[in-house]
Specification:
The complex is a heterotrimer of chains A (409), B (302) and C (297).
Chain A: H1 2-15, E1 23-28, H2 33-47, E2 52-57, H3 61-74, E3 81-85, H4 91-95, H5 103-108, H6 111-114, H7 119-122, E4 125-126, E5 129-130, E6 132-134, E7 142-146, H8 147-153, H9 161-173, E8 177-180, H10 185-200, H11 202-209, H12 214-217, H13 220-235, H14 244-252, E9 256-260, H15 266-271, E10 280-284, E11 292-293, E12 297-300, H16 307-321, H17 323-333, H18 349-360, E13 363-364, H19 367-370, H20 373-388, H21 394-407
Parallel strand pairs in A: 1-2, 1-3, 8-9, 11-13
Antiparallel strand pairs in A: 3-12, 4-5, 6-12, 7-9, 7-10
Helix pairs in contact in A: 2-17, 8-9, 10-11, 10-13, 10-20, 13-21, 20-21
Chain B: H1 2-5, H2 24-51, H3 55-60, H4 73-81, H5 92-122, H6 128-138, H7 143-156, H8 163-188, H9 191-199, H10 204-215, H11 217-233, H12 236-240, H13 249-257, H14 266-301
Chain C: H1 9-19, H2 21-41, H3 58-64, H4 67-98, H5 105-113, H6 120-130, H7 137-143, H8 160-185, H9 189-197, H10 202-213, H11 215-230, H12 234-239, H13 251-261, H14 265-296
Helix pairs in contact in C: 2-14, 3-14, 4-8, 4-11, 5-8, 6-8, 8-11, 13-14
The chains are: A alpha/beta (409), B mainly alpha (302), C mainly alpha (297).
């Protein structure tokens, strides 16, 4: 009896305040301070349309949040909208006809023109119809350098990869870790990907990742990248941390010289009160090739029976891409907007560098966009094993890498 | 040999009567227990100490040192302020949801499992062993593997997304171990009691309610311990089989502890952890007493 | 417990059968049904959603040629064997010690049992700290003057699985102890008296009389421990995420990651089929002994 009363009471509590508006449950894995503030911008903009954003945040992207999202959708009790990494993660849900077609909104608002770079929209397109809204761009291609660590070791802060390699022994002598590296597989793979683009060049990257050319993956060009990675592996010895932000913290405190990590790392520097150029440096493309990848997040809208909710979904899709929301959201998130026609005055130095490169068109797609989660996962496994187990030679790793690429779908 | 001889299940502690405090035997016993107790208590100490420190102190100091400056801010934050996406209500938001999930799930799963165990121990029917073996097999199936089949089953019977669907899931996954527990316990209750009740004309339910249940307090306590812990700490089922308005407290705990990006606030993590664990901890504290009392009561009867 | 044939057999079994309906449904629909479903779909190339495109044993070939799976199996064997032995020994010894009419029994029991109240996520996190060389045990011992002391199980690929074992035992042995204690207390006082009168040493009484009598308790604890071993997942995720490298990967994690991170359901199903198969290999002889043996009595 009491349980029933409690249920009713809480149900009544949830309903109040949402009498007219259409409620839309949105699931995502943005839970940290800055992320939540960014989501709040979406929610605010959506609520302003007279609807109501019901927040369903679940921390922990791959392992935790995605099974839940997929179960809800296949279980026939889907949410109103859900986040996925921009790319191929929701491919099959779209193919199975479980997702709302957004083409109508996209055409009305001319997404084909406003979304920049265009390739972002390609990942949302299936058989000529549009099924998702890209909301931001995060790029992997950065190395973060600690000024304090280099000052302590008595060498100048490197401006490119070669200088970094040359300075590494000095850092070791000063008792520092040249390259901080967390223990999770996606970090190892990400860092390798950055080295591949910077040291192997974009052509090689495209051959391997887009064309799935196993010969190139096993070739001499690639061998150089693996040699460099084996060297970087030595530099990273001694960084006994798990999470990427713990590795970033080693750089912030000057215990480590550098970290290869995506642009989300700058949030950590900001929180620690450090300034780009004074306390730390950021080099896109390892200072070799100034290029950025255009990964990020996208929102998908599962098909719902309720016509009112469907209307609200389309409204949310439109709101997420609007100029104002794009600016407000991305400033909080520390990511780049997906529209070329917005002005980000408030952006910090590293972000501005990214914007410039983006405008110049030196971009490449993210691993999530070109490789299936399965292939990506296998490379993740290989890379983390390679980075942490020095008994695996560069040649062995390359052979296994080529085999994965040969099987890639 | 175990069947006929293991009669009286319930009696007091064993061994010789207590003698002088400082015998060699006592030193050995208390010494061993004391050392082991340190190993068990150490992590709790670390958790409590950490939860009372400020973040700067955590970054500097070692994890075993007591806080220089005690702050309760992490506790306040964990309970009432920590954000889960847009909802900055901390753990308090999910507390009643967890209770709403816990009470029916524990009750239903234990009632069903005890009846199962009773039927298996005292009223074996043809084919029961087969189902029981499959059930034990079920104890070894990783939950994650069953996510999809269960989604499909719940969808087909129309319980997907509802609280009762979740209760059903907890009942199903609690069933193997609990049934085994009850079956083994009921098997050790003297056959004579059962036969006497049969002679008196008591039926299936009569014997269950009037003889088996009253004699089984200790095992019910163990079952409650298992279920309260499992269900209260469950995250995966709570989040997969219900909607956000029913999310249990562990979802907030996960969101606080597991945030991938941003600075990790270890003190808040630890406070949140202890807060989330309070309900099972309290159950243990009280049921520990019950456990002993149940044994004593049984001994008197025997 | 032999149930002799009686005239009212049918009626009496009827209520038992009705009472057992939930169990029959769970066993046949969920466990048996779900397992068959899993096995069937392990022969497909299902990715994110189950689909019936048959590929024979492809998933199994890939499974057994994957380094990570092989390491997972090896880890599980080491962890499993040690966890089984230590859980039973520690659980039994603690229960026997607590059963000596000691003072503060409540306190000790509560201390040994409380870790079980905490989830694996938390257990992993706390032990990750304590075992961390920078600020955990290693740094404390070094601070005491033993500068060369090295204890970094979570960052040493060779011993990382023992670091996980330490945390796993911490969390789980309390419950085993409680079950053992319940079992010890279930044994008739007269048996002890008789043993003492006959002059049988205490350890012999335990080894040859008490433990055989506690067979049901040992079966329960064995199933509990073994099920926990097979399902080992959260603890590894929280403590090491499978690292360093892939040195502490376990099968359940392989399966879960295959299904949801790699979005390759069929590969995950192939892994879980192998896991379930090995459980069956252990379970079927047990069921035969347990039930087959009974019938002969």
């Amino acid at each position: 009896m009491r349980i029933r009363t409690m249920l009713l009471a809480s149900a009544a509590f949830l309903v109040t305040g949402a009498a007219q508006a259409t409620d839309l449950e949105v699931t995502h894995w943005w839970t940290s301070g800055g992320e939540a503030a960014a989501v709040a911008e979406f929610a605010k903009a959506f609520d302003a349309t007279g609807n109501k954003w019901i927040d369903g945040a679940i921390a922990g992207s791959g392992g935790t949040a995605r099974p839940i999202m997929i179960s809800r959708i296949t279980g026939g009790d889907p949410m109103g909208a859900t986040q996925f990494n921009h790319g191929r993660q929701a491919e099959e849900l779209v193919e199975a006809g479980l997702m709302q077609d957004l083409t109508e909104v996209a055409e009305r608002e001319n997404w084909a023109e406003v979304v920049h770079p265009k390739s972002l929209l390609d990942s949302c397109t299936f058989e000529g119809r549009i099924y998702c809204v890209p909301v931001n761009i995060h790029s992997w291609q950065w190395i973060w350098l600690s000024h304090k660590a280099y000052a302590d070791a008595g060498v100048a802060v490197p401006t490119n990869w070669d200088e970094f390699v040359a300075a590494a022994p000095k850092l070791r002598e000063a008792g520092k870790i040249p390259l901080a590296m967390g223990n999770q597989s996606w970090q190892s793979n990400g860092a390798f990907g950055v080295m591949l683009v910077a040291l192997g060049g974009i052509d090689l990257w495209t051959k391997v990742n887009v064309d799935k050319d196993a010969e190139a993956a096993g070739g001499p060009e690639m061998a150089k990248v693996f040699q460099a990675a084996a060297q970087a592996r030595e530099f990273s010895e001694g960084s006994n941390v798990q999470d990427w932000n713990q590795a970033t913290n080693l750089v912030i405190t000057g215990q480590a010289g550098a970290q290869i990590m995506g642009d989300w790392a700058q949030g950590e520097f900001q929180v620690a009160g450090q300034t780009a150029g004074e306390d730390y440096s950021c080099l896109p493309g390892l200072g070799v090739h100034e290029i950025i990848s255009t990964g990020g997040d996208a929102f998908y809208f599962p098909k719902l029976d309720d016509a009112e909710k469907t209307a609200a979904q389309l409204e949310l899709a439109s709101v997420m891409l609007s100029k104002e929301t794009q600016v407000a959201f991305n400033l909080k998130k520390g990511s780049l907007p997906v529209r070329g026609d917005v002005d980000l005055q408030a952006a910090n130095d590293c972000m501005k560098k990214g914007l410039e490169i983006l405008a110049s068109g030196a971009i490449l797609p993210d691993g999530n966009q070109v490789l299936s989660p399965d292939t990506l996962g296998q490379i993740d496994d290989l890379m983390v094993e390679f980075w942490k187990d020095t008994s695996i030679t560069a040649e062995d790793a390359q052979a296994r890498y080529a085999a994965i690429i040969a099987d890639a779908d | 040999m175990s069947d006929s001889a293991t009669t009286l299940p319930l009696s007091g502690p064993r061994g010789s009567k207590p003698r002088r405090m400082l015998s060699r035997r006592n030193i050995f016993i208390y010494g061993t227990l004391g050392l082991v107790a340190i190993y068990y208590a150490l992590p709790l100490y670390v958790m409590i100490v950490t939860s009372l420190k400020g973040m700067p102190e955590i970054r500097l100091g070692n994890i075993f040192s007591p806080p220089v400056e005690i702050t309760f801010q992490p506790w306040v934050k964990a309970w009432a302020e920590a954000c889960t996406g847009l909802n900055c209500e901390g753990l308090s938001r999910g507390f009643w949801n967890s209770v709403r999930i816990l009470v029916p799930s524990v009750t239903v799963s234990i009632v069903i499992a005890s009846i199962n165990g009773y039927a298996l121990a005292n009223w074996r029917f043809k084919g029961a062993d087969v189902f029981f073996t499959i059930l034990i097999f079920g104890a070894f199936i990783p939950y994650q593997v069953m996510l999809y089949p269960l989604v499909i089953i719940l969808r087909e019977i129309g319980l997907y997304g509802s609280l009762w669907g979740l209760v059903l899931v907890h009942t199903v996954f609690g069933m193997p171990i609990l049934t085994l527990l009850f079956r083994n316990y009921f098997t050790s209750i003297p056959e004579e009691l059962f036969k006497a009740a049969r002679v008196d004309g008591a039926g299936f339910w009569g014997i269950y309610l009037r003889i088996m249940v009253p004699m089984s307090l200790p095992i019910f306590v163990v079952a409650i311990i298992l279920q309260v812990t499992g269900i209260w700490n469950d995250f995966l089922f709570g989040v997969v089989y219900t909607r956000p308005e029913n999310y249990p407290m562990t979802v907030q705990l996960n969101n606080i502890v597991n945030s991938v990006q941003g600075v990790k606030e270890y003190n808040v993590n630890m406070a949140a952890t202890i807060l989330t664990g309070l309900v099972p901890l309290a159950i243990y504290f009280f049921s520990g007493k019950l456990f002993v009392r149940g044994i004593a009561a049984g001994a008197v009867k025997g | 417990m032999d149930k002799a044939q009686r005239p009212n057999q049918l009626l009496r079994n009827l209520s038992a059968k009705i009472a057992a309906i939930p169990m029959i449904l769970t066993a046949s629909v969920v466990f048996a049904g779900g397992t068959v479903w899993t096995v069937v779909y392990s022969f497909t190339d299902s990715k994110l959603l189950p689909r019936e495109r048959w590929v024979g044993f492809d998933q199994y070939e890939r499974l057994w040629s994957t380094n990570r799976w092989l390491i997972s199996i090896e880890n599980l064997m080491i962890y499993g064997a040690l966890s089984l032995i230590f859980s039973l020994v520690i659980g039994f010894v603690l229960a026997a010690l607590l059963d000596q009419k000691i003072r503060f029994e409540d306190t000790f029991r509560t201390i040994f049992l409380y870790p079980f109240a905490l989830s694996f996520i938390v257990t992993g996190l706390v032990w990750q700290w304590i075992l961390n060389p920078e600020f955990g045990i290693q740094s404390i011992v070094r601070g005491l003057g033993w500068d060369s002391f090295t204890f970094d199980p979570l960052f040493n690929a060779d011993i990382v699985i023992y670091g996980i074992l330490i945390a796993g035992l911490w969390q789980g042995t309390g419950l085993i102890m409680v079950l053992m204690l319940a079992g010890l207390r279930g044994i008739d006082e007269d048996i002890w008296k008789a043993a003492r009168v006959d002059g049988i040493p205490v350890w012999k009484t335990y080894g040859f009389i008490i433990i055989p009598m506690m067979r049901p308790v040992f079966i329960t604890t064995l199933v509990l421990i073994a099920a926990g071993i097979v399902k080992l997942y959260d603890l590894v995720v929280a403590q090491t995420s499978g690292g360093p490298g892939i040195a502490s990967e376990v099968p359940a994690k392989y399966v879960y990651d295959a299904m949801f991170t790699k979005q390759n359901l069929a590969q995950g199903f192939a892994g879980s089929t192998m896991m379930l198969l090995s459980v069956l290999i252990v379970l079927i002889p047990w069921a035969y002994l347990e039930f087959g043996g009974k019938k002969r009595v």
